[in-house]
Amino acid sequence: MAEKANHHFIPQLYLRNFSAGRDRRKAKVFCFDQSTNKTFETLVRNVGSRRHFFRINVEGLDPNHVEDGMAEIEGEIAPLLEEVIATRSFPSHKHFSAVMTLMGNVAVRNPRFRSMLEDLHVKMANGMMRAVLQDKERFRDSIKQARDNGAPIRDDISYEDMKSFIDRGEFNIAIDQTYLINLELDAVPTCVEQLSNWLAGFGRSLRRRPVRRSRRVMIRSSLPGLTEKIGAHTHQGSGCRIRSFCFRSRRSWRWSACSQSSLQTVNSAETRSPS
Q: Of 29, 145, 226, 269, whose CB neighbour count within 10 A is largest?
């Protein structure tokens, strides 16, 4: 069985909606490369992806555990997204939740967001190292604490040697990809909450405006409280039901329980504004 190496951070189910082709395997999209100012047409499977982008290194789990889990979720989102596009509305709360889940994942599980997380952690690590090396006493205390915690630190490294090494900057700090992926997954519920709250407010503003169209969508809220669990952590928010994921089991993706929904999608006949 071929290894899954091409991981899409922009789901193909979304990209295909920008293709004129009906054959999923041959669907193409027109692209603009902002870095080179070049345009080109290519297959959907060739864009919005990176090699092993969601690959993890966790004992007892397949390296493609996250990628496979997201593929299952996208399989459930795909028909709901098609119905939303076809009707230009959210036929049910489940449709709304699916679209919010898709948007939340795309917003935080991408190269730019990961690069921001990585840069932040590298800056923090550099700052911590320089803080430890402000004076010899602080350096000795840090070494002692690290050894007490079981860190195998050599005895032949002096304060002067370490300070010179850090000042020269002849090193690279690498942040573990599995750790970064976990941070991205933890960020999804917060992102979905913010998106759904914004859309709820936008829906309230729509109801105060006359609309000239054959069909309009109005979202009534306030949306109910949301309980979202990731591993042993509980996230409280408002917005919609979303899926959670952790490294323990792919089956921990689930639609979380949501209290009575006040989300209402209203399709009305053509409405004319007063002259």
A: 226
